[in-house]
Predict the structure.
Amino acid sequence: MTHGRGPGGYGSRFYLSEEEKANKPRVTPELLRRIFSYFKPYSVRLALLLLTIGATSFLTLFPSILTGKIIDEGLMEHNLQALIKYILLSLGVMLASNLTGVAQSYINTWIAQHITYDMRNQMYAHLQKMSQRFFTSNHQGDIITRMTSDIDGVRQMVSTNLTSILSDLVTVIISLIAMFQKNWILALIGIVIVPLFTIPTRRAGQTRWKYAHESQACNDEINSILNETLSVSGQLLSKLFCREKYEYERYKETNSRMIRLNIREGMAGRWFRVVLSTFTSIGPMLIYLVSGMLMIVYKAELTIGDVTVLVALLGRMYAPVNSLLNTHVDWMRSMALFTRIFEYFDIPVEIENAPDALTPARAEGNVVFQHVGFGYEKDRPVLKDVSFELKAGHSIAIVGPSGSGKSTLVNLIPRLYDVNEGSVTFDGIDVRRLDLSFLRGQVGVVSQETYLFNGTIRQNLLYARPDATEEQMITALKKANIWDYVCKQPEGLDAVVGNRGLKLSGGEKQRLSIARVLLKDPTIFIFDEATSALDSISEQKIQEAIDPIIQSRTSILIAHRLSTILAADEILVLQDGRIAERGSHRELIARGGVYRELYDTQFSRALLPEGEADSAPAGSQAAAD
Ligand code: ATP
């Protein structure tokens, strides 16, 4: 929504845009109950806030009431003592109202901040529970907006709107009571007049706001014409197609439309002030007229002080009544904000611990896929009837064309997603029945996209195991073939890796993330080999780091290089989400199917270290034997 440049002063706060009108939230008792639940923990402070608001509004009005006494008892009766007494009392009351005002602001800010604090924490915890699917299908910007702007909107609403509604109400009620006490006829006139002069103000403001909006749209149109036609390619296009005259006319027409709107907007503003001042002066005049008639014709017991107080109170009621008449706008906006936030809270947690989740005492690392079917979206299966077994201590290499579902398959083991059909078991137990922390604690993943935090090497390692000793870290770094690099850094383990590890090369990042996983010491090791080319030295270093892991640990390797494939005990070939072939390198080569094809096109050439490509088939056969 564009508020435009003009309408702010006339209370964009007071009018709902077309978009807001179209998307009015549905206010249900359930929604209100939910909103109230956030205020509940602070009920004592809320009561205190009400008290201070009441006190401040009352004390602010009191000097107006005392004016009557100053006039009647001080000035009219020439009583200096009474005059000084009431003046001092007025000053004292004003000071007191300022002090309660400070207390009111403090309590108010405190409550607003604490409600948003609770909401932010709750939202963060909820988002943490969201599945991978949620993060891949939602814009990061949207998620952050809910966390920041929307919740901040709630804070503003609590701290500003809530207080202003309450204080406006108190002001109006106290003013009315005071007016009725003075004279009921004049009070009734007040009740009739106030809405009379607030309604035209409202209409005038609305008109001005409408024009401002239209002229803003016109301005956007002008900007887009300028952007289109005065750009290098735009002006070339208009020249070559002889459209200069047409473009000029288009610009002139929009420009003149904007000028007409600006004039109307300016005049609406002027009329607005005329209407405002006329109506605000009609009020006091009416009071003077009626009180004069009451005093002169009916000899009513009214004093000059009473009339002054009535006029002052009437003047004080104008702003609160106007603001209360517009409360529904604030109300709608707040409800819309809460609805947006609650929508996020209501997204079900897709992957969570089963109520009776199991935490086995020991983990061996046997993984079995039984007729697994999975798709990110309905009716678009990515994995189809996948069955295989990974025995503890063994390793499997998964190969297949890009997009065949290799990464998807391994994501099912730590339950980043749940299967749609079939099951994945870990040590004979369905992963959906295992405690999530236990399960994820058993799986170590080195993914294609290594993610390092902007911190030191030490901090990145400790993320995997907060209680790791320096020795354990060094051992992991050595095993991952990155210790030499760390030693070369002047700060050693405390060298900063840069934002997302940008200060490291691709190979160094991979090895550091291998070290991180080694430190975690999982039961199953998953290595999703990067497809992006690394130089042969980097590749060799990574190979040296993972070879011992493949040989000694239960591991699954998504492999793109022959050397990695050959190190595994079994090869699964995925194609279109199905296991097309399985077996040893030798068997698969002999079969002459998909694997052979992949081998001929990829592994034997591009992805083998230089010099080995040509001799690969023979050498690898030997290795496979
Ligand atoms: P590569 O070797 O290129 O990494 P892959 O074999 O690992 O490919 P996957 O990443 O498992 O393939 O993807 C399998 C299919 O699922 C692809 O068609 C891909 O577009 C789709 N896919 C992957 N991730 C998502 C996701 N988060 N949401 C929707 N579809 C996805």
